[in-house]
Amino acid sequence: MRTQVGIIGAGPAGLLLSHLLHLEGIESIVIERKTREEIEGTIKAGVLEQWVVDLLRETGVGERMMREGTFHGGIELRFNRKGHRIPIEELTDGKRVTIYAQHEVLKDLIAARLQAGGQIIFNVGDVTLHNIDTSAPKIRFRQDKIGEFQEISCDFIAGCDGYHGPSRSYIPNRKEYLKMYPFGWLGILTEAPVSAPELVYTNHERGFALLSTRTPWIQRYYIQVDPNDNLSNWSDDRIWTELHARVETTDGFQLTDGPIFQKNIVAMRSFVCETMQYGRLFIAGDAAHTVPPTGAKGLNLAAADVLKLSQGLVQYYETGKTDRLNGYSEACLRRVWRAEHFSWFMTTMLHPDPTQSQLEKKLQLAQLEYTVSSRAAATSLAENYVGMPIDW
Ligand code: RFL
Ligand code: PHB
After folding, report:
1. Residue 294 Cβ contacting ligand 2 at under 6 Å
2. How far is CA 203 from CA 200, 209, 210, 356, in A?
3. pLDDT tens for residues 12-55?
4. Other beta carbons within 10 Å of 193
5. Ligand in nearest proximity to the CA of 291
6. pLDDT for 118-159, tens place per residue?
7. Which one of 34, 44, 72, 244 is the catalytic residue?
8. Measured in whole angstroms, how far is the alpha carbon of residue 273 from the centre of its chain?
9. For residues 123 and 136, what is the distance between their CA atoms, to the nearest angstrom?
10. Is 95 a catalytic residue?
11. pLDDT band for position 354 (cuts 50, 70, 90)
12. How far is CA 322 from the centre of its chain?
């Protein structure tokens, strides 16, 4: 097989890159380890930054999002059993919080690529990269994980294969920065009506809790747990008891329960790989950096990376110049480190750490108090939450 850009991974980074390149007349082939059903059924992110919403609309894949998504003008920070609204829309000149599930974005992108004749090869195995320091790199893989080895010859390889994918390991002399947090999130999907008008991020002495939503009838809730805990320890009753205890307020907030139809536990890490390029290989999204989900940044960062990569590739194919491609890593990392800091800030402000001292608990509350009562501090949170300008 031959194409211009070989893309490894059909997550948000790989699929959006393939879509953006197609609109510019650049061919790509996407290979993906999972089946289409697995990709379309994996529950992950929910919050999209305003510029990502605008990009999806402008590039023709935003129609269902605008119909089925939920749009909020603010978020709530809750601590000491009291809620405080951060009026995001007012503090950011009209930018809104958009909630539209990651797998719905993926369904829309997959449909758009296939309808345009794009090639996505699902369920591949044994992926290896070759000749990346030449102008004729190759990707080798096996279809259905058991078939004959096949090869894609291309001009460039985009490693969009997530935190556990193989691409990053092909960058020699890379420097990796990692922090693992001593807690994780247990997430549920429940068939219940909306209990709060906007997302609620709660710091409670029993642990963090987050109330998010999917549709008027399906809610997405999270509670802080030990990252090594097992789902079998968490009956539905225990989950509801914890959620109720953590989000209760002195003014009688009511959380409505419902049947739980999906549960999972995720670990939390902050991770950055410098650089994000070697020869003709460019890595993007979670393959290059990961954030804890408290700032809702991961998918949005993946989108920013591939927008920049597509611009570099367009410049190369139109003019033969490589300065944008050569500046890819530097251009991405500035935004990456901003989002890493914001995600770490939100995480450390909102999660009681099991190893933390009484002094650190007081400092957390002091930071929350400042964030909700100073317009300057609230504006800083708001502009990061809805997303810094794309050229940041
Ligand atoms: P992905 O989504 O991990 O996709 C990588 C794809 O590559 C495939 N792959 C391979 N394919 C071929 N060959 C191989 N050898 C391969 N190895 C792996 C994988 O199967 C997969 O399909 O990475 P990408 O595209 O960089 O996207 C990143 C986002 O998925 C991630 O950052 C977000 O989900 C993070 N995140 C959030 N981000 C937001 O912007 N807003 C949010 O509200 C938000 N909430 C969240 C989140 C992540 C969460 N979890 C599950 C950690 C909430 C949670 C709970
Ligand atoms: C979600 O709805 O899944 C969600 C919302 C906000 C976050 C993370 C995840 O910070």
Report:
1. yes
2. 10, 7, 9, 14
3. 999 999 999 999 999 999 999 999 999 999 999 899 999 999 99
4. 12
5. 1
6. 999 999 999 999 999 999 999 999 999 888 999 999 999 999
7. 72
8. 16
9. 25
10. no
11. confident
12. 28
